[in-house]
Q: What sequence folds into this?
């Protein structure tokens, strides 16, 4: 994900997407991002070395992945957010998450490794639970920011998400928005959900 600042740049991306396609792995960009994170103190030097190696010797999976072709996706840029709110909902019943601060001199929070564990507002939790229930999602991570009007906006949702930050959460919310302090294992919730689903089919 990157910020497009001019129509000319936008046209170039569209032309490439509907032409030869866009690779899903950009080794140079990954290396530069890891270098920036390291200089900001948010990453290890070993991560820089790994990304340098991958730039020269791309991972095997990059030879399997097809290019993103014949489609392009743009989002409105919402300014004045110093981070996003990551909310993970499991089985439509449990939610946990944290705030992820933006990278230094960047609009992106993903990959910053800079987390703030604070109470998540009611409107964001309600929106996360409502969408998860409406779409009947077993496991999903939502990324929220605030619109210029102050409303919660989902900028990304994914079934495949990292746990580096969320594993440090000190509790979770249930659908009644009650906070439950203490350690928990979301993997058990997934297992329980799967077992219940299998039992209902028999």
A:
């Amino acid at each position: 994900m990157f910020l497009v600042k001019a129509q000319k740049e936008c046209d170039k991306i569209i032309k490439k997407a509907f032409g030869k396609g866009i690779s899903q792995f950009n080794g140079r960009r990954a290396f530069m991002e890891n270098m920036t994170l390291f200089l900001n103190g948010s990453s290890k030097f070993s991560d820089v070395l790994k990304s340098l190696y991958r730039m020269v010797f791309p991972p095997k999976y990059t030879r399997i992945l097809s290019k993103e072709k014949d489609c392009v996706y743009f989002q409105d840029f919402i300014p004045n957010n110093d981070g996003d709110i990551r909310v993970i909902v499991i089985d439509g019943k449990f939610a946990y998450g944290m705030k992820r601060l933006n990278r230094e001199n960047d609009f992106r929070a993903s990959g910053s490794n800079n987390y703030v564990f604070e109470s998540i507002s009611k409107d964001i939790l309600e929106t996360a639970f409502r969408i998860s229930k409406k779409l009947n999602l077993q496991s999903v991570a939502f990324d929220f920011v605030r619109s210029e009007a102050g409303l919660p906006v989902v900028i990304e949702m994914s079934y495949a998400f990292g746990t580096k930050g969320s594993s440090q959460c000190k509790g979770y919310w249930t659908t009644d928005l009650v906070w439950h302090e203490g350690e928990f294992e979301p993997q058990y919730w997934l297992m329980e959900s799967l077992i219940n689903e299998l039992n209902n089919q028999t």
